[in-house]
């Protein structure tokens, strides 16, 4: 039972990121349905982060009552997280989806692992390590996944996709930078609920301000009991609220590269969901590209697993001294009382033994 528990515990980052991609795929389908219904994309993003803020701020206040003090550095990092992972990346992504399709935007978005890997190496958060098997696997898997994404994208492509590709490229670059900034923020402010709430607040302020400046039709802000309300509520509560928190936890446990490498799964899920619900066509080249993407994903995960296993094996030799003091634990006032009584009894016995020894010495001196 203990082995099963440990195995499930080690699988937490994997389960987190698979859940994130499934929820994001549902959000992509709803985005396209809302856009087809005539809803402004900028208003969708604004409402998304408003709903996320309304959901996450009370949750953070209830779950985490004690938290580190907010500093200007943390607030600046939260502003950047709201910009890079929120308003900027989402507006660019939805523009790309409107110009092309949900599948196309998801395909271009698979540049995130490659961009994140380059940035993580540049910021010294990941090691290239081409002389090791794990390092070669991470590079090879990233290249294979990238090649699969390109095959998926440019098979049966046309020139009018250029603007959509540029918008998606800008979105995935912003998302990769968000993963880097989020890692730094987690080190200085390790409160997952509060960090997510701060990111949602900043994203809401930025996206609402942008939508108010660019959207002149006030009827776009009207919500009814239709696909528009479902889209913004789903995206705000699940995609920007709970899923951002899961991404934050995964980044803290495994690093930004591990979190970004699951993005290819989003492409596969959106491709099949788009063919079912949005009547998007799938070609043989698209299917082959999806296979390459999944293959690259597992190669990178294998390399990352080998690296983590090597690090875990080297840990016991560096810190054996911390296991011994952990045995001294006072668990209750009763134990404390018993310990105190034992010390007092031991001290009384020592004093009695000393008195008896002194009396024996006095008797011997008197007899002499």
Short description:
By secondary structure, the chain is mainly alpha-helical.
Q: Determine the mean pLDDT.
A: 77
Helix content: over 70%
| H-E order | HHHHHHHHHHHHHH
Rg computed from alpha carbons, rounded to a whole number of angstroms: 29 Å
Class computed from helices, strands and strand pairing: mainly alpha
Outline: globular
C-alpha termini separation: 73 Å
Number of helices: 14
Low-pLDDT stretches: 317-344, 362-368
Strand content: under 5%
How many E strands? 0
How would a crystallographer describe the biggest sheet? none
Helices and strands in order:
Blueprint: H1 2-10, H2 12-36, H3 41-63, H4 72-99, H5 102-108, H6 112-122, H7 133-154, H8 162-188, H9 192-214, H10 227-254, H11 256-260, H12 263-277, H13 284-314, H14 333-367
Helix pairs in contact: 2-10, 2-12, 3-4, 3-9, 3-10, 4-5, 4-8, 4-9, 5-8, 5-12, 6-8, 7-13, 9-10, 12-13
Q: Care to describe what's here?
A:
There is one protein chain. By secondary structure, the chain is mainly alpha-helical. It is 79% helix and 0% strand. The chain is built from 14 helices and no strands. It has helices at 2-10, 12-36, 41-63, 72-99, 102-108, 112-122, 133-154, 162-188, 192-214, 227-254, 256-260, 263-277, 284-314, 333-367. Helix 3 (41-63) crosses helix 10. The radius of gyration is 29 Å and the shape is globular. It starts with a helix and ends with a helix. The relative contact order is 0.17.
For the structure shown, list the relevant keywords:
single chain; 368 residues; mainly alpha; 14 helices; 79% helix; 0% strand; globular
